[in-house]
Design brief:
By secondary structure, this protein is α+β, with helices and mostly antiparallel strands. It is built from 5 helices and 6 strands.
């Protein structure tokens, strides 16, 4: 009986150690839509600048920098859930904004509806929640409405 209790105690202790080791204190952003982007980097990982050259979203970030914004850490999002081909959250002057790039030739009806709503209503609806949205060409911007520099961000985005 003593052996059985010892083995059982060791199994429980080992399980507790494994469970504790698998935990994470990283809570991440509350509105994070995913953990990886198309190049497989994780949230918080640096993005290879070489892979973003001559891409619309990278050019947009450069445009914000040229207009005096400090572009901070990128948070990768699951842009495919929106029907986008690329996208991420980014810190502009220390506050988060999200940008998504869409294929103008998409035949995805959900993506088309989302873009139409952004163009005509200035909002998009995801998971029955309506968000203010701006669209410029093929790029959608959300999560800008509570930024302390909302007007400057909208002006800079629209001038891109």
């Amino acid at each position: 009986m003593k052996k059985v209790l010892t083995v059982l105690l060791m199994v429980l202790l080992g399980s507790a150690v494994l469970i504790a080791g698998c935990g994470s204190n990283d809570q991440g952003p509350a509105n994070d839509l995913g953990d990886q982007n198309q190049n497989g980097t994780q949230n918080g990982d640096p993005v290879d600048e070489e892979n973003t050259d001559n891409e619309p979203l990278a050019d947009l970030l450069g445009h914000f920098e040229q207009h005096g914004f400090t572009v901070g850490e990128e948070t990768l999002k699951d842009y495919s859930m929106l029907g986008a081909v690329d996208g991420f959250g980014i810190e502009l002057d220390g506050e988060d904004v999200e940008f998504y790039l869409f294929d103008p030739a998409t035949d995805d009806p959900d993506a088309q509806q989302l873009l139409e709503d952004a163009r005509t209503k200035g909002t998009i609806t995801m998971w029955e929640i309506t968000f203010p949205a701006l669209i410029n060409g093929d790029i959608l911007m959300i999560n800008h409405d509570e930024h302390s520099k909302q007007e400057d961000i909208e002006t800079t985005f629209n001038s891109f």
